[in-house]
Amino acid sequence: MAVTFKGGFHVRDYKELTNKVKTTTLPDCDMHIFPMRQHIGAPLEALVKKGDYVTVGQKIADSSAFVSAPIHSSVSGTVLKIEPYFHDSGTKVDAIFVKNDGQYTVYDGIKPKDYRSMNKDNMLKVIREAGIVGMGGAGFPTHVKLSPQQKVDHVIVNGAECEPFITSDHHYMLEEPDKIVFGLKMAMKILGLKEGYIGVEVNKPDGIASIKSCKEFDSSIHIVELKTKYPQGAEKQLIKAITGRNVPAGKLPADAGAVVVNVATCVAIANAFQTGMPAIEKNVTVSGDAIKNPSCFRARTGIPVSFLIDQAGGFVAPPEKLISGGPMMGLAQYNTDYPVTKTTSSILAMLHAPKTYDPDAPCIRCGRCVEHCPMRLMPLKLADASHKDDIEMAERYNVTECIECGLCSYICPANKNLLQFIRMIKPDVLRKQREEAAKRG
Amino acid sequence: MENKFIVSSSPHLHTSATTQRIMLDVIIALIPTTIVGWIFFGIHSVLVTVSAMAAAVVSERIFDLIMKKPNTCQDLSALLTGLLIGLNMPPAIPVWMVVIGSAFAIIIVKQMFGGLGKNFMNPALGARCFMLIAWTGAMTTFREPLVDAVSSATPLAVMKDGAEGTLPTLMQCFIGLKAGTIGEVSALALIVGFIYLLARKVVSIRIPAAYIISFAVLTFFCGKNAFNMNYLMHQLLTGGLLLGAFFMATDYVTTPTTPRGMIVFGIGCGVLTFVIRRFGGYPEGVSFSILLMNLAAPLIERYTVPKSFGNMGGARK
């Protein structure tokens, strides 16, 4: 029996577009652009300057802060310039432009790490130096995640991949199951745990079979089948399904004794130890009804999205919407120039934007948003509070717990973009709570 | 930059469900009982239901025009209200009364309070009770199905105060061969329609189940003929209980949206219906019960807000 959480909804997943194709590598791209913000945490400083020659795996930006992760070049070539450039967050971010010489000369320091003789701190250092962050899209530095203050008894690999369209993690399961399991074992070693869990939605039976039959798989690894339901891959919902625990409001997964790492992150951890190569590659799903040949690419970071779209056959017709990430939580883009970063999992091009949300449409109080909210909130009340700018009401209905999964907006028959209303009031509530906390000292 | 993309807040997918489709589903679910009513009560019942629907839609349109609001008829909610009013009418009611009732439902009960989604009580039931008070005679004159112009007491009235007439058999009640309003007589047709609603996931079973079970338990243990299975089944299968529980008490707008609130609402309806049928002056109490509970819905909702995920406790086992 597949486990799950209460609430949620099976959103049509469109994964059939790309779940049968093989992951393909890409031809050379002339220019790679590395935005200096690919993680959550302290900003980075460039370690190279215009005219420098860089090699594959060479660190090109770093920070001395603990909560940060360095960036490495994914190609060899010359640094052309450092200037602000498009970023999938919608703003421009300082980026390092590297002209690819097509040689892919590997950086000197890249060699396998002797993890057997390493202690926990040295292993964390390897992960930090490899620039590994939450590759599912969040971008939280993995070495920080793997050094929790609290006692942790569950380490879980997130293979739910519940966002529609995306099959990047699925392809890792099919093609590199050993790396997933090996990466998990490294995480287990760091956390001092004997057992690890891999949660996979049951809509990927071949992925589950592939992991179960790989060389690294043994009795210390438990594969947990998850019900196919959105948002099963949300951290708190995944922990609930596997451990039965609720992460308390305003707390971290570690407070419930669990650490969750993404499938792609595990692969990056495995690479960092097995070959020494930092996080410079990423499976990227290019899909959507506007893409001629929906594909899954093994992309080097820094490659412009327009290049990937061309490799997928281009657009069948001009799309109305371009999304970085999944259709439920991804960010709408205004051009195809932004580069692939460590957190890019997919690029979706839609021929038609969904029907425009109607802010004036009457709520018929059908209760679907309440019934399906994975955080057990009342989106209709939160939207109402937002409409009235009633911060107390939004707080009373626990607006700060919203994980912004978008299910309420998706499911609303009255076509209201409930999440957008929630997003409008949430910062006000957070500010109020910060001010109150400051007053209390 | 030859492409221009639409940039908007996520999510970028949307369900195919619409308000209009939900209303249509409820109308479809009401078709079996409507047709049974038409067959049993003849041409005048057709006239009653059709004029109720027409009056509701026309009232909605006129109100929109007067208030300079966009046309709201295409959401089908007015059509549904009209149909429900028609199904709640005794078969022989004069058509002009029905037209006034429909207009009252749409203009006074629904639009005056802000239109779809804002009304505090079920418009169809509001109209029914208004008519029950305004034209008590016409609203309580029932007749036997399949025969012309023989007035007859409803089984509930027979059970209540031993009015003239004999109780129909349970099988007759189930199929609908008994006196009653156009849409309430056939339990079979109502159940078929309700199963369709459940299958389409338009309504949850919480309110109807809580309503019917609480009513049945009270009737079985504290009814006029307590511990009498036959009496209990007659109470369940006659009157507007099933029509009310399946189609009126499940109206989204006037019921709580919280799962626990729905159960409380259903139990409240069941208790009130029992009290009115057992101790009240009227033989039937479904409409009043649901209306009273409609008024309590905001309060119920307020006290049944689900515990949020992060406040449920259970961080460590």
Q: Would you give an account of this structure?
A:
The complex is a heterodimer of chains A (441) and B (317). Chain A has helices at residues 120-129, 142-145, 168-175, 177-191, 205-212, 235-243, 263-274, 305-311, 368-372, 379-388, 391-396, 407-411, 418-440; strands spanning 24-25, 31-35, 45-46, 53-54, 59-62, 71-72, 77-86, 92-100, 154-159, 196-201, 221-226, 258-262, 281-287, 295-300, 321-324, 331-333, 346-350. Chain A is an alpha/beta fold. In chain A, 56% of the residues are buried. Chain A contains 13 helices and 17 strands. With 317 residues, chain B is mainly α. In chain B, helix 2 runs antiparallel to helix 3 (77-87) and helix 4 (95-110) packs across helix 5 (123-134). In chain B, strands 1-2 form a two-stranded antiparallel ribbon. Helices cover 60% and strands 1% of the residues of chain B. Chain B has helices at 19-41, 43-66, 77-87, 95-110, 123-134, 136-139, 155-161, 170-175, 187-199, 206-222, 229-237, 241-248, 259-279, 286-303, and strands at 142-143, 151-152. Chain B has a single domain, classed as Orthogonal Bundle (Ammonium transporter fold). Chain B is globular and about 75 Å long. Classes of the chains: A alpha/beta (441), B mainly alpha (317). Chains A and B meet through helix 6, strand 15, strand 16, helix 12 and helix 13 of A and helix 1 of B.
